[in-house]
């Protein structure tokens, strides 16, 4: 196959990985990752610091090679087809490096010059429209050292948008920004997505992913804990049932019989959770848990003395804390 011809397969995912793994010595930074990013989605790649997000992105962009597994970007294998794929992928990976004493326009023109596929004749128009796209036309002639962090980040996005892109890959695009800069960048990402561009965005902020993403995957220590639409992930939130009873072992028996997992709890208390789903989470949710009223009826029918009963739905936030298993940063 000629890799310079991009086989833009109808219905193909924007990104698909299978068993993607990267080891540094004995440590697996990314471990057997199978990810599907649908075209047109705004896909949040969510995980605590050090969970392997940047390493994954670097493999997707052909910047490092995987130890095992495969990655396809826009329907073509990476890194083999990098030459055909990368011109259609805009990336913001490390904080963009600009010349501080050159203007926004001059910086973008320099970057555009470095792109062998970008005709010089149309450079001015390209730079102008990229700046307009990110709302920086008014500051086009200003030197970059006078830009705020948010403006610099938007200039980074403008650089990623100099030529038409099918996919944008953004690594923690709001990291280090103040609230105003964060708002600017998030609203820009939303507007890019409205134009149909697939956006793959890594973040350690649940609130950010909830605000701008249609889909998400949750990574923990290099492993995929769940992926799906935000609604699917919410649907996979597991209600927690708490039974106060002197008959704890009988109650636990009834809950187990209904397919619930028993969680350690204090004396006189039995806590049941619907059984955990497979590691790919929302894409194969477990069977629907029994309704709380059915659980109470079963307890009573079995002769369990119920002194108290509580059913608590877990929020997406609790669900993500549960999946990532650590002090997950949900702010932002
Ligand atoms: N070049 C490298 N050599 C050795 N270990 C590495 C290298 N790059 C990353 N790692 C390790 O791999 C793990 C995942 O790092 P990675 O940067 O991909 O995580 P991340 O989720 O992007 O986190 P952060 O948001 O902090 O960048 C970490 O334990 C990190 O120390």
TrEMBL record:
Entry's Gene Ontology molecular function annotations: ATP binding; ATP hydrolysis activity
Entry keyword set: ATP-binding, Nucleotide-binding, Transport
Signal sequence extent: none
Highest taxon listed in the record's lineage: Bacteria
Domain annotation ABC transporter: ranges: 15-246
InterPro entries noted in UniProt: AAA+_ATPase, ABC_transporter-like_ATP-bd, ABC_transporter-like_CS, P-loop_NTPase
Family named by the database record: Belongs to the ABC transporter superfamily.
Name of this protein: ABC transporter ATP-binding protein
């Amino acid at each position: 196959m000629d890799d310079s011809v991009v086989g833009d397969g109808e219905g193909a995912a924007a990104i698909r990985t299978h068993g993607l793994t990267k080891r540094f010595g004995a440590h697996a930074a990314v471990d057997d990752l199978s990810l599907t990013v649908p075209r047109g989605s705004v896909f949040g790649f969510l995980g605590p610091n050090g969970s392997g997000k940047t390493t994954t992105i670097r493999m997707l962009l052909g910047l490092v090679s995987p130890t095992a597994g495969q990655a396809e970007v826009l329907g073509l294998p990476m890194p083999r087809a990098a030459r055909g794929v990368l011109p259609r992928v805009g990336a913001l990976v490390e904080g963009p490096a600009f010349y501080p004493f050159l203007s926004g326009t001059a910086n973008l023109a320099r970057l555009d010059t470095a792109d062998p596929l970008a005709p010089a004749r149309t450079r001015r128009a390209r730079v102008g429209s990229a700046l307009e796209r990110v709302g920086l036309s008014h500051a086009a002639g200003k030197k970059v050292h006078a830009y705020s962090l948010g403006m610099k980040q938007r200039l980074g996005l403008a650089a990623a948008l100099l030529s038409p892109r099918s996919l944008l890959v953004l690594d923690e695009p709001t990291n280090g920004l103040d609230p105003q800069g964060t708002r600017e960048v998030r609203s820009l990402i939303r507007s890019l997505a409205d134009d149909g561009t697939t956006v793959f965005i890594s973040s350690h902020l649940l609130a950010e992913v909830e605000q701008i993403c249609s889909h998400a995957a949750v990574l923990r220590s290099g492993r995929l804990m769940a992926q799906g639409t935000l609604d699917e992930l919410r649907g996979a939130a597991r209600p927690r049932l708490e039974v106060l009873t002197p008959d704890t072992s009988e109650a636990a028996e009834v809950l187990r019989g209904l397919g619930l997992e028993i969680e350690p709890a204090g004396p006189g208390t039995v806590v049941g959770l619907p059984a955990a789903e497979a590691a790919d989470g929302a894409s194969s949710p477990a069977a629907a848990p029994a309704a709380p009223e059915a659980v109470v009826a079963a307890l009573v029918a079995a002769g369990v003395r119920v002194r108290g009963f509580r059913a608590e739905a877990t929020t997406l936030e609790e669900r993500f804390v549960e999946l990532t298993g650590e002090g997950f940063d949900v702010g932002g």
